[in-house]
Amino acid sequence: MxxxxxxxxxxxxxxxxxxxxxxxxxxxxxxVFAQSISSxxxxxxxxxxxxxxxxxxxxxxxxxxxxxxxxxxxxxDGANAIGVWAPCSMAQDIRRAGSYGVRGxxxxxxxxxxxxCVEHGGGLDIHAYGLIVLQEGSVVHETITRKKVLLLSLxxxxxxxxxxxxxxxxxRSSR
Amino acid sequence: MILRPQVLDLRxxxxxxxxxxxxxxxxxxxxxxxxxxxxxxxxxxxxAISLFLSLSxxxxxxxxxxxxxxxxxxxxxxxxxxxLAWVVCMFLGAIPLLLxxxxxxxxxxxxxxxxxxxTTGLVLVQDLxxxxxxxxxxxxxxMFLGGQGIIVxxxxxxxxxxxxxxxxxxxxxREEKILPNVVETAKFIWFVSFxxxxxxxxxxxxxxxxxxxxxxREAIFHGACNFMAAFDTGGFTPQSQNIIxxxxxxxxxxxxxxxxxxxxxxxxxxxxxxxxxxxxxxDIEIRTFLVTLAIVTVLxxxxxxxxxxxxxxxxxxxxxxxxxxxxHTGTGFQTIYAQQFTGEWGSLAMIGVIMAMAFGVSxxxxxGGIKMLRVGLIAKAFKEDVKRFLTSExxxxxxxxxxxxxxxxxxxxxxxxxxxxxxxxxxxxxxxVVGCFFGYPFLQSLFESTSAAGNVGLSCGITQVSMPVLLxxxxxxxxxxxxxxxxxxxxxxxxxxxxxxxx
Lengths: 175, 503
Prior knowledge:
The structure holds two protein chains of two kinds. Chain A folds into two domains: about 1-35; about 35-165, CATH 2.40.50.140. Helices cover about 40% and strands about 30% of the residues of chain A. Chain A contains four helices and eight strands; from the N terminus they run αααββββββββα. Chain A has a five-stranded mixed barrel. A two-stranded antiparallel sheet of chain A has the order 5-8. The longest helix of chain A is centred in the first third of the chain and has 33 residues, at about 1-35. Mean pLDDT of chain A is about 85; it is low at about 20-35. By secondary structure, chain B is mostly helical. Chain B has a domain at about 1-175 and about 495-503. Chain B has helices at about 5-25, 30-35, 40-65, 75-100, 105-115, 135-150, 150-155, 165-170, 180-210, 215-230, 250-260, 265-275, 280, 285-305, 315-330, 340-345, 345-360, 370-390, 410-435, 440-455, 470-485, 485-500, and strands at about 400-405, 405-410. Chain B has a two-stranded antiparallel ribbon with strand order 1-2. In chain B, helix 9 (about 180-210) crosses helix 10.
């Protein structure tokens, strides 16, 4: 009887522990994955985030910088750009990197944040273990405004007039 | 009694100012060519507007002057032309930047232009990662022009030689001629710079492709931009992350070499070109540079080590030593984020970098700051005075030093070095006081002020679009005065006073 009671108690305790641990784990995961952290927060509070799993998102800018089986992806969230170290296989879905006239893919990354990464010479970076294209990039078309055309015509006219005056002045002085 | 400047004075100033503006305006054809090459339509219009406006201003100034051919330029004219030319070029050079839409105000665009011309490297650009190739090239080109000297540009192509040319040349904080003729000197500076530009661009492009994994076209573009910024100790880069973007130790090492090479006196470059390589190790500037570099490196690395900021020698070199070299050479390239200086580095390491920035490297180079020649001379004067106390009163104590040739230390040299050094220290402190006035902590204010006045470009986070307008203007004045080494600016001030109050 005693042994049965103790067995039940032990089982309840184990169940409680499992639920508790699952809860904590789940809570942690929810906390980490629920909202991405900003670059400003990561840089300003780098010590607090060092070695922790973070979710970060931003526009891929520049180029995908290939390094053997890995790539460097520089993601700009609007305030700063942070380097993300990821295996090549993760970067397969990437279509566009941001530059002049191109809005790059908006990527979401989950990975380990390093304040001073020992593997990469003390740099501040994220080592990705998950990457997703949240929004595909696009081409941005700039148009020439009427105001600019007017300004161009005006200054061209002024310059032409000054050149004519200069030529006339030079001719007169040479006589 | 102060004498009011005559009409002829104004005409002389107007004529040469016009020539310099014309030279500067013509340079806007380069980004137009880049825009055509990269298929960027709108930037072509932006730069064409700025080009036509600059040429119009230049021609207008020359036409208004109607200067007789035999007119000679005095020292006062030369100094006023130089200091005014820098301001006028700032206003004109900012126009294409403003038209690009990446600067919030005209003041911000002027700040960026003066930062480029003075080879500082502090930035107020927004969304740099989407800036056109043409505008990006212009940012780096003005750094290249300002580094070699706007006046050097004009001397090379538009102004004839003679004493007037030399007065313009000196006004731009260059007292040493490399060749007997100042126009030949200017042409030599350009020749050397272009040869280095080609070689440096190729080296950085190769690093970009093989070490960084960049596409070839981008690697060449970045190589050219970063070479201009590194050799002219400027500090702009085509991406918002500065040198962090490349994530490569090879790229960092290559830029370290270029930064140091660019900070060397052009006379020493000439010595190397003519086979006198030993001059490099004998010159007082290089020797002083090696000593001060060692001191500030130790100070910074001890500070970083004490705070356990970076682990291991490689990390300390890539993050600590890199910032020291960048600061000392007056470049301003960063391999850390601006906020990391204040958030992680600690006071001692920051003081190390502030000292590095304050020193600068060579006279007749593109670096800013006090300069090694002056630091070396003051140190030698101290040593000589101590020696004088230790020897008998009748003994004659002399000190010899090597700067391009063997020279003896005299009081006039030391006085001149001490005066400029004091002026720089006051300028650093003045900017720091303004920063403190706006509520920034003293150390951060001093850091940013030294960076601006020493034409460095490292930032601890104060330089932002949101910073007070008065602080932006203060930094513009610091960059301008620091680059021209005060004399031209003081002469311009005196000229203005005499214009309004003279009889």
